Amino acid sequence: MSTEAHGRLVDALRSIDRGLLLVVTGAGVSAASGIATFRGPEPDAIWKEADVSLATAETFRRDPVRQWRWYLERFRALDGARPNAAHGALVRLEAWHEARGGRFLLVTQNIDGLHAAAGQRRLIEVHGTAARLRCSRSGCRFGTPEGSLPRGDFDLEAFRADPDLERLPVCPQCGSLLRAHVLFFDELYDEHRDYRFDEVCDAARLAAAVLFVGTSFAVGVTDLVLRLAGARGVPMASVDPTARRAPASGVEPVPLAAEELLPELVRLLERS
User: Fold this and answer.
1) Catalytic one among 6, 127, 181, 192?
2) Is 87 annotated in the active site?
3) Is 233 exposed, middle or buried (0-12, 13-18, 19+ CB in 10 A)?
4) Does residue 255 share a domain with residue 158?
């Protein structure tokens, strides 16, 4: 598994001492857990099969039944998933860096909850989570800017069996329709406090090194990190088996699968 890029990544992580190590993960980190990526080369990549407009607030307002049917299929695929070796290695990376006196933050674009299930402590789920729902009425205590509810508190099987507007889940506080607690494509990162976007911005400004794992660099949070961290010239690398060239200026491509590279990477770091 030894490559020049791999060796440079080990050296870069060793060199940042007590600085902030920022890790940004995308769907690729969960691929080995059986979860389809969004824009990857796999034939089951989600946006090859689905219209991106499904994941918008406009679709929720216009056709909540259609959107809920799609999200329930997504949630069904996530519910049986378990963390893979890449998730476990990132937990160990956090422990290794903090044991040296360093600071660590993992920002994930994923809603699958696998980083938390693996034991990641310094974690921001910047696109929300499949584990919770929220009220669609702004200002409701269970809606924006800070409320949500556990998805497990609602029986969605009646709707799944017979999709109909009358069977959609409603807010126990105000009776409005509930929606997925995720960032839609036509929404902003600062619309809900759970996204913790201010903390992400601060981390991008302060990071001593950035490790991207399994991301296509097609969303706003990666643009933000590239701009704020890249402007300072900090070491940045991208672990992606399909990356044969730099995905963005200043980012070192490491063309290996995360579930293969990261455990070996952490093993080498732990020995140092």
Assistant:
1) 127
2) no
3) exposed
4) no
